[in-house]
Design a protein that fits this description.
Blueprint: E1 2-6, H1 16-30, E2 34-40, E3 53-56, E4 59-60, E5 68-69, H2 75-84, E6 88-91, H3 96-108, E7 112-115, H4 135-146, E8 151-154, H5 157-166, E9 172-174, H6 191-200, E10 209-213, H7 222-235, E11 240-244, H8 250-259, E12 266-270, H9 274-281, E13 286-289, H10 298-305, E14 310-313, E15 329-331, H11 337-346, H12 348-362, H13 367-384, H14 396-408, H15 413-429
Parallel strand pairs: 1-2, 1-6, 2-3, 6-7, 7-8, 8-9, 10-11, 10-13, 11-12, 13-14, 14-15
Antiparallel strand pairs: 4-5
Helix pairs in contact: 1-13, 7-11, 10-12
Length: 438
């Protein structure tokens, strides 16, 4: 099959969506499929010679740091898509590239599968500080987009239940992203390499390290872990917390740590590439997360594959991979963290037991199973939509407009008025936006 994946995020951005796409591409190509990725141009990306990746002209997203959106599709990209003879479109976002994927699906008569990665109701604070889009509006938009696909992939049962509650009526398949455990194994690195990395960050060989890896954002609740450190440091004063990643909350967390008097115990490394990230997992004595906004929680699984014990806030999305006291440790309230972290950091036999059990558990979450399940879904969707009707481009605005009008008519009047008002404000404040050269 010729497969087109459309995503607003991909490497060099380091997040669960980019990792999921890379893993899927590798597994599908092993099976003989041709996979083409359409994603925004990122100025941080070194010149690449991959003929299967197409980067579209982009500009920064005003409200989300280090994210970029595509608002036009150059003619040469459309011409290239025509030449690829795609059998299926797989959208991995609901916004700019996701909308392009939907347009290609509709105009070319190509079946479309959509993966729902993000619970947007937890992210509306990024858009005009929550004054433009409400959680209800985010749920309505998610429902609308998912119902335009022929099939939807949910990475966990938590996400499946969420989509059903939104009113998504299209078939939903729960397919967790597989983990390439070989990329994270301790055996990939010598003790000398890990010690050198520790020393580069000012850590000694015996420094207890609490690790956080991923996007540094408000909904990740990293502040709850930092808030537990003062009490922990009274009992284990040499402890450090290493935070790997980038995002909007970095400066706020710096300030919060300083306000608590523990700023010197926080180490922010910035974002790291996929090639480096396996080594950074080996810095930790324990990986800790307080997030409740995950749809699958790939960083938990990566930590477990790396043999790093996980302390996580109890959440349905990780119920299938973390068993409390066996493959990790769970907590319900932030007040539990100081004692729990002290216990695991000072009990080496417990860490070794959790590490061994976690690595064994991750072997079951294989990349092979991930590839098999997605491939089977593609084949099913293609067979069921073999005679899908094409809609010519001139008619497309009318079709999309009619569908959108039907959705907007059901949105709260207050939300629509607020959206129009804020749009007018932006138009007045930003009469033009600079374009980035690709």
């Amino acid at each position: 099959m010729n497969i087109g994946i459309f995503s607003d995020t991909y490497f060099p951005q380091l997040n669960g969506v980019a990792t999921s796409i890379q893993t899927l591409r590798q597994e599908l190509e092993k099976r003989g499929h041709q996979v083409y990725i359409f994603t925004p141009y990122d100025p941080r990306q070194a010149r690449e010679n991959d003929g299967h990746i197409f980067r579209l002209p982009s500009m920064p997203v005003l409200f989300v740091r280090n994210y970029r959106g595509c608002f036009v599709c150059p003619p040469h990209i459309l011409h290239k898509i025509n030449q690829l003879h795609l059998d299926i479109v797989h959208t991995q976002t609901e916004f700019s590239l996701g909308l392009l994927g939907k347009v290609i699906s509709t105009t070319h008569g190509i079946p479309m599968v959509h993966t729902y990665h993000t619970m947007y109701e937890d992210y509306v604070h990024y858009i005009a500080r929550g004054h433009l889009i409400s959680p209800e509006g985010a749920r309505e938009f998610s429902r609308f987009f998912c119902n335009t696909a022929m099939a939807v992939i949910a990475p966990s049962q938590k996400t499946e239940s969420l989509l059903h509650s939104y009113g998504v009526q299209k078939p939903i398949s729960v397919i967790p992203t597989g983990i390439d455990t070989t990329h994270f194994r301790k055996s990939n690195y010598t003790p000398a390499e890990i010690l050198e990395l520790r020393h580069s960050l000012g850590l000694q060989a015996d420094t207890p390290v609490i690790l956080s890896i991923g996007r540094i954002a408000k909904e990740k609740s990293i502040d709850l872990i930092i808030g537990a450190l003062p009490e922990l440091l009274q009992r284990l004063p040499q402890t450090k917390m290493v935070i790997v990643g980038e995002g909007n909350e970095t400066e706020n967390l710096h300030q919060y740590g300083n306000s608590l008097g523990i700023g010197s115990h926080l180490i922010f490394t910035g974002g790291k590439s996929w090639q480096e990230i396996g080594k950074y997992y080996q810095l930790g004595d324990v990986f800790c997360s307080a997030s409740l906004s995950e749809t699958q929680g790939l960083t938990f699984a990566e930590s477990m594959a790396a043999g790093i014990p996980v302390v996580a806030r109890r959440d349905p999305c990780i119920a299938n991979i973390i068993t409390d006291g066996k493959t990790g440790m769970l907590f319900d309230h932030p007040e539990e963290l100081p004692d729990l972290l002290y216990h695991i950091l000072t009990d080496q036999p417990l860490r070794e037991k959790l590490s061994a059990a976690a690595q064994h558990a991750m072997e079951a979450l294989s990349v092979e199973a991930f590839g098999d399940h997605v491939e089977a879904l593609y084949q099913k969707v293609v067979a069921e939509n073999a005679h899908m009707e094409r809609i010519p481009m001139p008619a497309l605005p009318l079709v999309i407009g009619a569908r959108a009008a039907g959705q907007i008519s059901r949105l709260p009047v207050k939300l629509v008025r607020r959206s129009l008002s804020y749009s007018a404000h932006l138009a007045e404040k930003f009469p033009f936006l600079p374009k980035n050269k690709s």
